[in-house]
Design goal:
The complex is a heterodimer of chains A (1040) and B (233). Helices cover 61% and strands 13% of the residues of chain A. With 1040 residues, chain A is α+β, with helices and mostly antiparallel strands. In chain A, helix 5 packs antiparallel against helix 6. Chain B has one domain: P-loop containing nucleotide triphosphate hydrolases (Rossmann fold, 3-Layer(aba) Sandwich), CATH 3.40.50. Helices cover 28% and strands 28% of the residues of chain B. Chain B is α/β, with parallel strands linked by helices and 233 residues long. Chain B contains six helices and ten strands, in the order βββαββαβαααβαβββ. The chains are: A alpha+beta (1040), B alpha/beta (233).
Chain lengths: 1040, 233
């Protein structure tokens, strides 16, 4: 029957789970730590690659001082090696958000294919007044609020406000830096994407190019491709810009020619108009003259008419008088008649007649109405008779009176007629005269009006013509070619690659930091894992001596005996390494990325990188380590004779520790410590493992804290101690004393002191190699750059000498007194190293102006100035206003760079924390495991002590004193190891421009020590229960 | 009053569903200064008796009186104190700490109590005056057991508990050890309780308690114990 080793292994695991877990844990820790660190760089790069590819970050971004247009886009797109070109518009503006805070935003047009925004929340803008806000400053809650331009600018933006409809990240802003601007305070708060028609300009501020390459980000292949393409892109761009410049000039000339022609035509038209007007006025004048002539004629007519009328009136008056006389005569005759009559009687008669007439009429009517009435005809008859009677009676009176009346009436008629006739004539005559007068007056008035009107028109016409003439002349005066038109023949173009994009570049450096560190750890962890495994296996073999002996006695071979242990160790390491691999490759990148999200916000999570080769390698190493150790540990037992195995083990004799031979050191030690020392010395393998584990843990801690110490103070070291200036200005043109003085005067309020110098990137060569460095040529650096090394000042280089920085000296393997070759624009020169000073950012070479002139015979170009701001000047606005000066091409602010680096280094805290956790885990696992085994070995001893009468606390102390002593020793030994480890790790952290000082502050040693002791203490706490629970009855058991 | 009194002591172990009675109504007493032997076959319950006597285990019911105090009701700390001050143990397998010299082993116990005797003196008394600086691995079995006895006696305990003290020793050595025990007890007035399965030793004791199947079956007092040198087996 086959021995069920698997089942036996399983039982063993169940019985002492702690040991199995210990092996599993240490393997998992080691593999996880290593694998995790190993894949971080790839994970970060893969994530970046995915993001950049999906959102298609530009390979080139080109711009020209003359602006770019659609045909430029097409021309660039056709270049060899360029897949696509797209025009974009970027404009900065000061804005206010809904809360009223002012920010400077960079508005960018949403492009369709290159450098597209990644929508994180909300939706893409559909209308020209909608926008996407920056995920770094805005959240989903801001969707719906508006961004308002502080000063609406209809020439640039089509709207005054833009509504946020979505939040996005941008491949052009992978990290938190948002760039600088010449507006306001000088730094951009965030970007803002708006649709193309949100802008009112008709040109592109830049064109993005997509190169035809699939190369991986930051790879050499990519860099090579871009370098090659850059030449053709630059050439094409320059030619396009030049052509545009020329066409602008030609257009300007053409427009001017047009203008001149128009002017001349205008003059001609003006003359025509003038002539026309004059002709019209002459006409009008003639007409008026005519009018006056007519007026005179009319006046003469009037005089004649008046004469005639006077005559006629005379006649009429005579006629009138005659008629009047006639009428009077008649009246006299009538009166005569009347006097002969009896007037009163007449009246009576007429009265009666009237009454009778009335009666007649009435009766007639009544008869008509009542023909039958008998009385009426009678009455009527009577009346009629009466009438006749009267008429007959008084006939002569009546006749007389009628004649009287007749005469009177006739006289009246004659009077009336005469009056009438006279009046009519009078009126008619007067009427005629009046009419004529009126006609004349009217004519006069008309003429006066006409005259006035003519004058007014004249004046108006004159005025208008004069104004028109002035206008023409003014317009003509403007027809000059604008200043600087000639400059358009050499426009400035800029070709930017990804290397100028802050986010892109910083990702490259940040991802490589880790990889340098990684390679130290595997060796260490393998060693520790091997030792832990070994202790467990040895213990197991010892515990099972008897069964081993029995099996051997039964005839099982060595291989069979080993198989259980191999299964045990093999399974532990297999499970541990696989678990550790996945936990590590999953967790460590994420944990570290969490720290990095302080600086990068284009994605929350890293891509998971599965490296099967790495996994296999880790598993194989773990298996080899553990199973190999198992075999070695158990081998000795299995090689013994069965009888030997079955006898009680001869435990190692107690021996004096050499320490005891120094009585004055040994005697005063407390009893328990003496016990501890003896115990420690007795089990040397255990001692070794503990020290390695604890020491390793302390070393890790020292290294971790040291990393922080080295990296964090860069900001202060470089920007407080070395750089004393506030800004570095690069001018657009080479400066001389006059232009510098002018600049200083113009910006006096922004400049405290200024030092102009030459700066350029040059190659520095020694016999060991060549490196690039920034050459500084000036008379002095006092007050601007502090040359210092290890706390001591370094003198400004003397004639023929240069001062270089420590990193450069190390790379070139030179020291003071050695000779270097420096290539400059004026030729190569050989110089001696006069001094070495510290500089953490980039390599530098300082030389005096004299040295340069003497060596090359020429004066170097001055295009740089270092500026110390005046006391109390607000640094960021000062920088912004300096930028606005036309002669300034670029302003570098030390305050901003300092802050940026400080921010970067904050993430160090998380790295250090990770290291502390791993170191703690390491110490804990090792200590716990070994102590656990230790206790198991000495159960009888501990039980005996309890029986003898030791209290629980005393018993614990008895057991744990060893641990504390070992922890202290381990920690003390671990510290120098940590210093070495730190040195090694720092040498691997190579970031192009920064050289970190390798220092560890003394508090770090204290912390590391304290933490180590803490871990030991924690183990003690964890095992308390175990020690307390040891059954005193164990003391009575036999030795086995 | 008896120094030790067991009054209807029961000890029941529970193993899952099964109950095992290690002691059933065990009752006996031991006077001060006596050498008492508890004898019985393997598994009779002697060790359990010892455990309870030594305050190393709890009882299920009954009383155990030591000098009138019921140690069954003692807290863990009080039991430790009891063991510290009142009891000295001698184990079958010596249980010396291999990393300490003979002297240091005894010192280990001596430093627990102010009233302890000088470790050197006690070691000399047990005949190991010139072996004090040796480690247990350098001592023979008998010598080791002597050291153990010295360790037990250095505290001046009122009670000496010995669990098969000669179990790992040969005949001659065993006799020597027992003789030492006997002598020391007489001299210091310590009460010794010796557990053994060898009934031939019974004559040396002042009192013999026979245990069978967890209960005390016989308790005899021996008015004139035989010196161990005269006993042969």
């Amino acid at each position: 029957m086959k021995i069920p080793f698997g089942r036996m292994a399983w039982r063993e695991i169940r019985q002492h789970p702690g040991r199995y877990v210990a092996i599993l844990a240490i393997v998992a820790l080691g593999v996880g730590f290593y694998a995790g660190l190993f894949v971080i760089e790839d994970a970060m790069l893969d994530t970046t690659q995915d993001y950049i590819t999906e959102y298609n970050l530009y390979d080139f971004s080109v711009s020209s001082t003359l602006g770019l247009y659609e045909d430029d886009v097409k021309a660039l797109g056709k270049l060899d090696g360029i897949k696509r070109a797209e025009g974009v518009i970027n404009k900065d503006a000061i804005c206010q958000n809904s809360a009223g805070t002012e920010q400077i935003l960079r508005f960018m047009s949403i492009s369709k294919s290159i450098s597209r925004p990644d929508l994180v929340a909300g939706r893409m803008p559909k209308h020209s007044d909608e926008c996407l806000a920056d995920v770094a400053r805005y959240t989903e809650d801001d969707i719906g609020s508006k961004i308002r331009l502080r000063e609406p600018d209809p020439e640039t933006f089509t709207h005054k406000e833009y509504t946020i409809v979505g939040i996005a990240t941008s491949p052009e802003y992978m990290n938190y830096q948002r760039g600088s601007t010449s507006l306001g305070g000088g730094s951009i708060t965030s970007f803002c994407y708006i649709p193309r028609d949100g802008f009112a300009v008709d040109y592109f501020t830049s064109i993005h190019l997509d190169a035809d390459t699939d190369a991986y980000v930051y790879s050499d292949e990519y860099k090579k491709t871009i370098k090659q393409l850059k030449e053709s892109v630059t050439a094409e761009l320059e030619s396009l810009a030049q052509n545009r410049g020329i066409s602008i000039i030609e257009q300007a000339h053409a427009e001017i020619a047009e203008g001149v022609a128009a002017y001349e035509q205008g003059l001609i038209d003006l003359e025509k108009a003038r002539a026309q007007a004059n002709a019209q006025f002459a006409d009008a004048e003639a007409q008026i003259a005519d009018g006056y002539a007519q007026l005179e004629a009319g006046k003469i007519e009037l005089a004649e008419m008046e004469e005639k009328v006077a005559l006629a009136l005379e006649k009429a008056t005579a006629d009138f008088n005659a008629s009047m006389a006639e009428a009077d005569e008649l009246l006299a005759r009538a009166d005569e008649l009347a006097s002969a009559a009896d007037y009163e009687k007449y009246l009576e008669v007429t009265d009666a007649l009237t009454r009778l007439e009335e009666a007649r009429v009435t009766l007639t009517e009544l008869i008509k109405q009542e023909p039958d009435h008998a009385e009426y005809p009678d009455l009527l008859d009577r009346v009629e008779r009466k009438i006749q009677q009267i008429e007959t009676e008084y006939a002569p009176l009546i006749k007389l009176m009628s004649k009287y009346h007749e005469l009177r009436t006739k006289a009246q008629q004659i009077r009336d007629t005469a009056k009438d006739t006279f009046d009519k004539l009078d009126v008619a005559a007067k009427g005629l005269v009046t009419m004529q007068k009126v006609k004349l007056t009217e004519a006069q008035t008309d003429l006066t009006i006409a005259e006035r009107k003519l004058n007014a028109e004249r004046i108006k016409a004159e005025r208008e013509l004069t104004a028109a003439e002035k206008e023409l002349n003014d317009a003509h005066a403007l027809l000059v070619l604008p200043d600087g038109l000639d400059e358009l023949t050499s426009p400035k173009t800029f070709v930017l690659t990804r290397e100028q994009n802050a986010g892109y570049v910083s990702m490259e450096t940040d991802s490589t930091i880790i990889s340098g560190v990684v390679n130290v750890f595997p060796v260490f962890f393998v060693l520790v894992a091997a030792l832990v495994c070994s202790t467990v296996m040895t213990r197991m073999a010892l515990d099972e001596r008897i069964s081993l002996g029995t099996l051997k006695a039964m005839g099982y071979g060595r291989r069979a005996l080993l198989s259980k242990y191999l299964i045990y160790a093999g399974s532990a390491s297999l499970i541990g390494s696989v678990l550790g691999y996945f936990a590590g490759t999953f967790g460590m990148p994420r944990a570290l990325w969490f720290a990095y999200t302080l600086m990068y916000d284009f994605t929350d999570k890293l891509v998971y990188v599965f490296d099967p080769v790495l996994l296999t390698a880790c598993v194989l190493v773990a298996l080899a380590c553990c199973m190999g150790t198992a075999v070695l540990s158990v081998l000795s037992s299995t090689m013994q004779m069965p009888a030997q195995l079955m006898r009680p083990r001869v435990s190692a004799s107690g021996k004096r520790v050499f320490f005891e031979r120094i009585p004055f050191l040994w005697k005063p030690l407390p009893f328990l410590t003496k016990v501890a020392v003896r115990n420690i010395w007795r089990y040397k393998k255990r001692l070794l493992v503990m020290i390695l584990g604890i020491g390793g843990s302390t070393a890790l801690l020292v290294c971790g804290f040291g990393l922080s110490d080295s990296i964090k103070p860069i900001a202060t070291s470089q920007f407080d101690e070395i750089y004393k200036y506030d800004y570095k200005i690069t001018f657009t043109e080479v400066q001389d004393d006059d232009t510098l003085a002018a600049f200083a005067e113009q910006n006096a309020d922004k400049i405290g002191t200024m030092l102009a110098m030459h700066q350029s990137e040059q190659d520095v060569t020694s016999e060991h190699g060549s490196h690039k460095a920034t050459l500084h040529v000036c008379d002095t650096l006092d007050g601007y750059i502090h040359l210092v090394r290890n706390g001591e000042d370094v003198a400004f280089p003397a004639r023929g000498q240069v001062v270089i920085n420590t990193r450069l000296a190390e790379s070139l393997k030179v020291k003071e007194g050695d000779v270097l070759t420096l290539s400059t624009a004026d030729g190569e020169i050989a110089l001696t190293v006069g001094g070495i000073a510290e500089n953490y950012i980039g390599n530098v070479v300082y030389m005096s102006l004299q040295t340069y002139e003497h060596a090359t015979g020429k004066t170097p170009e001055t295009k740089t100035a270092l500026i110390c701001a005046p006391e109390g000047a607000p640094l960021d606005t000062t920088a912004a206003s300096l930028r606005q000066d036309e002669t300034v091409a670029y302003v570098e602010e030390n305050a901003a760079r300092r802050d940026m680096i400080t921010n970067m280094m904050q993430s160090m805290n998380y790295v250090v924390l990770t290291i502390i956790v791993c170191a703690g885990a390491l110490a804990y696992i090792v200590l716990f495991n070994l102590t656990n085994i230790n206790i198991t070995e000495r159960v009888r001893e501990i039980a005996t002590l309890r029986v003898i009468g030791l209290y629980k606390g005393e018993t614990r102390r008895y057991v744990m004193t060893e641990n504390y002593v070992l922890s202290v020793i381990g920690a003390l030994l671990g510290m120098p190891a940590g210093v070495l480890l730190h040195k090694f790790v720092m040498s691997k952290i190579v970031i192009d421009s920064i050289a970190f000082p390798v220092t560890i502050e003394w508090p770090s040693f204290l912390y590391a020590f304290a933490l180590t002791v803490l871990f030991a203490f924690l183990v003690g706490l964890a095992l308390r229960g175990r020690i307390d629970r040891i059954d005193m009855a164990e003391s009575l058991k036999s030795v086995e | 009053m008896a120094l030790i009194e067991f009054d209807k002591v029961n000890k029941i172990y529970h193993s899952g569903q099964v109950e095992i009675a290690a002691l059933r109504d065990a009752s006996f007493c031991v006077e001060a200064g006596e050498v008492c032997i508890i004898v019985g076959q393997s598994g009779a319950g002697k060790t359990t008796l010892l455990n309870i006597l030594g305050g190393m285990d709890t009882l299920t019911s009954g009383r155990v009186l030591f000098d009138g105090q019921d140690i069954g009701k003692f807290t863990d700390k009080k039991l430790s104190g009891y063991r510290r001050r009142e009891v000295g143990f001698v184990f079958q397998f010596y249980n010396l700490i291999g990393n300490l010299t003979a002297l240091e082993n005894v010192e280990m116990a001596a430093r627990l109590e102010k009233g302890s005797r000088s470790p050197e003196e006690v070691l000399r008394e047990v005949g190991l005056g010139d072996r004090m600086q040796n480690f247990p691995a350098q001592l023979s079995g008998g010598e080791q057991q002597r050291v153990a006895i010295a360790r037990a006696l250095v505290k001046n305990p009122r009670l000496l508990l010995c669990d098969e003290p000669t179990g790992a020793l040969d005949y001659e050595t065993g006799k020597n050890i027992l003789s030492l025990l006997q002598r020391s007890c007489r001299e210091s007035g310590t009460t010794a309780i010796i557990i053994t399965h060898n009934s031939a030793l019974c004559p040396m004791a002042d009192r013999v308690i026979r245990v069978k199947n967890g209960s005390v079956v016989k308790c005899t007092v021996n008015p004139s114990p035989t010196p161990i040198e005269q006993i042969e087996w």
